Fold this protein.
Amino acid sequence: MTDAYTRFVRSAPGGLLAKQLGLPRPSRLLRRKDRPAPVLGPVVVLGDSAGADAIAHRLLEDGADVRRRPDELRSIGSVLLVLDEIATPADLGPVVLTLASAMRSLAPGARVVTISRPAGGGDASGAKDAALAAARGGVEGFLRSLAHEMRGGATANGILVADGVGLDAPGVVGALRFFLSARSAFVSGQFVTVSTSAGSATENPSLPLVGRTALVTGAARGIGAAIARTLAADGARLVLLDVPGAGTELSRLANELRAVPIQLDVTADGAGERLVSFLRERDLTLDVAVLNAGITRDKLLANMTADRWDPVLAVNITSQLTLTDALLEAGDVLGEHPRVVSLASTSGIAGNRGQTNYAASKAGVIAFVDALAARLAPLGGTANAVAPGFIETEMTAKIPPLTREIARRVNSLQQGGLPVDVAETIAFLASDEAGGIQGETLRVCGQNMVGK
Ligand code: NAD
């Protein structure tokens, strides 16, 4: 699904005109179907820590073409900057400037990934090493700026590995695989924190969710339908939920994916208990719950009324509280290591004019997954959120044309994302490898200019 402007500037006369006028010329992003190879090589691993050596070895074992210097490479697919042992801001320069000399050799769709430690924290007494904190904080500013400079559909993202967690932890390996792959095509300028060594290696990388059962709410169309298709392609068995009014589309998708459909309004009285009974009657236990159902009812606060405020809060956040409470309290409908992935939004991070109701609900989701993560951790489970920016769906097709055109261009990749981009990120967070990622909100927004 390409918008009309992008089709025009990809034509020869359109491209020339856009170049002359200095208008955005979005590159074609390669998704999984376009680039199934897990890593775009050659991969240059920069940094001289033991962690850098270990990562280089691991990539070699996986069959990647790994180099420790970019010299004389005319085309570079991926660059890893392993900065886990930097101690002062002066330690950044030698690694970063090696990448600087290689920037013009990055291939279209290249990947740059930093691996470093979070700036916060301190020793047991809470005392902080100021130089260490400054060096680690510097990685974040560097990476976010670099992502704005990437061209040709290339992206730059970072992995923050908590102190005490090894670079060989499943969460680090999983996040690295995700950022290096085409599955993260619309994720740029983002960090994901791996806070524990929990999780396990994926036994079957081509079918990472085989043997898992996943619920997707709001599955009949848009992002929900893409999530269903992606999880099914990754091997999951699916329970697909949507309102009775979307029953026809829901049944069609369920037939296509051999999934179990359930028609239920997530805001209905007793919705959680009805879902639990439905699962028990069919002897189903959920390993993954994707809480995707969501609505907008935009108005400036001056014109906001209860009939616009209440349903948005009810669908987007209150239903997530009641459904997860019911699933957890039932005690017999969740599998081991349950994964919850909720849909937030960049509006919940940065706010958006006309969306006080929606942003309140989505900021609520971000705080909710953080709280739920603490409740699920003792069960070996995780809760995380994905915050899409502008994604091409029926929801965003309703935005007035000029506002829509601006909204889809104000990101580093100069285009709207596709539902599959959100779905791929959710599939990553649902995977075994992501067990050490807890209470995070990962943006899928092409580095939208709003918020941090
Ligand atoms: P959409 O309107 O295309 O689809 C939403 C689905 O949720 C529909 O199938 C709808 O029937 C279902 N739904 C709505 N209310 C429900 C209820 N009470 N019970 C059960 N199902 C219900 O929306 P989308 O664009 O695919 O958005 C999916 C999610 O992604 C939402 O949570 C949305 O807030 C979020 N999101 C979307 C974008 C975007 O750019 N499209 C950006 C940020 C966040």
